[in-house]
Amino acid sequence: MGDRELAALYERWGFSLYRRCLAYLGNEAEAQDAVQEVFARAIEAAPRFRAESSPAAWLRQIADNLCIDLLRRRRRNPVRGDASDDERAGDTLDRFTAPSGEHLILAHRLILSLQPDAARIAVLYFLDGMTQEEVAVETGLSRRTIGKRLQAIVSAAHTLIANPEPGA
Q1: Does 105 have pLDDT greater than 50?
Q2: Which of 18, 56, 89, 153 would suit a FRET pair with 129, their CA atoms being 20 to 30 Å apart?
Q3: CB 119 within 8 Å of CB 24
Q4: Where are any strands of DSSP class E within 20-117?
Q5: What predicted TM-score, i.e. pTM, was given to this entire model?
Q6: Domain that holds residue 20
């Protein structure tokens, strides 16, 4: 895969990957940095790219792995004086109305509360709009397992909505 092909992938998928990273990370600057890192990793991994897989699926996988790693590091090594996750999510709210902002904060808190595999399933299904079958193919899990995990994710979302305050 050459520079021209990667530039075309960036043009086609850059914004979608940004939205994905923003959903995971809840901060515009971190999401922008993550997208740049996704493409840096794609350039590095390009010689190993298997043409039988979709470039979009490949880039989503890189983004998912990167964002999940960043979230794990954030949980393990909180920086003193750093913004809380809710404040970080609030950074993206300046241009949104209150209902949209509230939903964004709740979605970010939900993703942070999930195990990495469940967070990936939630992003693929709810953000990317994939069917359960498509999520199953993307993750290598059965459709039935995806259905069960989505039920658990929806249950967690209902609990979060019922207790919107952090730690409630």
Answers
A1: yes
A2: 89
A3: yes
A4: none
A5: 0.62
A6: 3-162
